[in-house]
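Response to reviewer comment R2.3. The reviewers asked that we include at least one raw input/output pair. We reproduce the pair for Transcription elongation factor GreA here without editing.
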Amino acid sequence: MPAIPLTASGVERLQAELHQLKTVERPTVIAAIADARAQGDLSENAEYDAARERQGFIEGRIAELEGTLSNAQIINPSELDGEGRVVFGATVEIEDLESEVRVVYQIVGDVEADIRANRISVSSPVARALIGKSAGDVVEVNAPSGLKEYEIISVRYA
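Raw output as returned:
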């Protein structure tokens, strides 16, 4: 399996989720299954079915996280020397030249991308346009709403 690029903080978040699933969620669902089993006839026991479904989700997520973490290529942005260029793990402030709205994004791996937390995937159109550029550069992004132009205001490796 190919290496999966992750930031150091992304690895910490995934490890915390894995720990939560193994130490809290898994024992809770096992207890719920046992309680539902104790109620008797399993063929029409909705609580048992729901608990088994939840167990399947938890076990699947645990396997997914373990696979991701075992193939992780950890990149610590604070140790990068990107010489002012946008690279994986960098935090970039950009300004939409049309609306003059500024936004800050961290460029992360596909697994840890979360737009609500301003972490965008390295494979996203915006990140692909930014990679290799420096503060002051203007980039064009072909977005669903049309061509957008952004100016890179700053690049940090934190």
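The two ends are 29 Å apart (CA to CA). The mean pLDDT is 92. Further pairs are available on request from the corresponding author.
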